[in-house]
């Protein structure tokens, strides 16, 4: 089975930070893939913009090098690469001065009214400068949008200030706050599973679900993002955005349609229903951890502070028992965990159903496991429904726990597109369903801020854990205290 590609209308994508890591690793390869898929139409252009002086030709060489570095050789088709490079332009622009802005204006003002998207792949500290320059140089047309990357603030107050800064220049419907987790195939499949099937929704509540687990595990350490990460930590870097967005998609009520406002209204209600975690319960409901030396990918690795080269109490791991104060989810804990240098790179959502109320099978049938729905985001995106079945054969009634396994790579004869590919095109289509609205971002901070304050007030220290494990023992205790266990990687 293959999917249909619907071409998008022509656009100019201006990538501020066109020479940065995000553009090189993600944005340019994602846009090339859309070229390869036949989705780009004439006269689409991609315009790199940053301070470094470069000609168009030099930036095309930079782009080609990025494609060669980050894509497989067989993905680089000569004609398509040439067609893609012909779309690439570059302007040297400084967010902090007038340098280059007239050149950018000249390049953009072609007289054709096509979609214009500004992607801010730069530090949030210059979002405001860029927004102001865009306004001052009259670069906003009827079909202009702006895309901003995380982090959106480091607490509620700074997020509000950043949103105000951008909001002074752009209307909310022009602002696309990207969370690339929402562009993942499986994340959207979660909506399809829940709302395109009659099977799950009647069971999707506290009467039938025992608990939910959301794990976003990385095996890597700091990877160069030292200054940013040490100031942020795992709660700000992963929980405030990616994990809470996943929690919202699991927990929200059925929206009236897939319309962006309908979906985002429902997600917002979930965020506002999260039970506050404050200094009174933060110790019981959360665990902070920091990796020590250990082994990763078979080799020895240093601890966080050695990598950092300084003493630090920043958490590289966090586990939280979250609760949602509404009728659907009362009494159903959502166990959240994320960390660096964990045993493996893996992100998944586990919906753990309640055990059967009574077994008609004798002891010889074996243990009856409760059903689980496992939604795997990475690696190997797919869904597994764990069920009990009879062990085949004439040996009497013996039961076995097996999974109905739907690995997307195997089930569909298509390449699994990177999340950025979909999101970049959604910007052009002006579809905000998979982007965060201002009030969502701020509601998420509103829940995260008291946890940060609680940690500070009670002096909750990051517990050491050996690199290559599943985090501090306190994280295992957090769930085992409730008579549950973290889902094993299967
Ligand atoms: P980066 O590698 O440091 O790149 C920053 C870019 O900004 C460079 O192209 C730089 O080019 C440009 N720049 C800096 N000052 C400028 C100015 N005054 N005017 C115009 N351009 C300027 O950063 P990154 O890793 O790509 O990250 C960019 C943003 O995305 C950050 O907000 C980051 O948190 C976010 N993000 C990144 C990733 C990732 O995987 N890298 C993932 C999620 C979110 P010049 O020096 O030539 O000006």
From TrEMBL:
Its EC number is 1.1.1.49. Substrate binds at residues 180, 184, 218, 237, 340. InterPro entries: G6P_DH, G6P_DH_AS, G6P_DH_C, G6P_DH_NAD-bd, NAD(P)-bd_dom_sf. The active site is at 242 (proton acceptor). GO terms for cellular component: cytosol. Keywords: Carbohydrate metabolism, Glucose metabolism, NADP, Oxidoreductase. Residues 14-189 form the Glucose-6-phosphate dehydrogenase NAD-binding domain. One of its GO terms (molecular function) is NADP binding. Residues 191-487 form the Glucose-6-phosphate dehydrogenase C-terminal domain. The keyword Oxidoreductase applies. NADP(+) binds at residues 51, 150. It catalyses: D-glucose 6-phosphate + NADP(+) = 6-phospho-D-glucono-1,5-lactone + NADPH + H(+). GO terms for biological process: glucose metabolic process; pentose-phosphate shunt, oxidative branch. Catalyzes the oxidation of glucose 6-phosphate to 6-phosphogluconolactone. NCBIfam families: zwf. This is Glucose-6-phosphate 1-dehydrogenase. It comes from Peteryoungia ipomoeae.
